[in-house]
Design brief:
two-stranded antiparallel sheet, Cro/C1-type_HTH, 4 helices, about 10% strand, mainly alpha, 434 Repressor (Amino-terminal Domain)
Length: about 80
C-alpha cells in the first residue's frame, strides 16, 4: 500500500482551498504537489511545512500502510 495523503486532501476541502492555492500558500513546487497527488514520498521538510501551515501533526495529513511481504516457502 504505502503512503496516502488522503487526509491532506480532506483538509484542503474543509479549508475550501484548491491545489494551486495550497501550492502557493505552502511554497511548494508543482512537482511536489504532483507527488503528493500520486501518493509518492516527499521530503520530511515539506511535510513539516504543511503541518506548520495547517497547525496540525503529521498523522493529520499522511497515513502509511506497510506493503505485504512475500513469505518465503517454510519447507526450505
Amino acid at each position: 500500500m504505502g503512503f496516502s495523503y488522503n487526509k491532506l486532501w480532506k483538509i484542503l476541502i474543509d479549508e475550501e482551498m484548491n491545489k494551486t492555492e495550497f501550492q502557493k500558500a505552502v511554497e511548494l513546487s508543482p512537482t511536489t504537489v504532483a507527488k503528493l497527488g500520486k501518493n509518492e514520498t516527499v521530503n520530511m521538510e515539506i511535510l513539516a511545512r504543511i503541518c506548520d501551515y495547517f497547525e496540525c501533526s503529521i498523522e493529520d495529513i499522511v497515513s502509511y500502510s506497510p506493503k505485504k511481504r512475500k513469505h518465503e516457502n517454510e519447507d526450505k
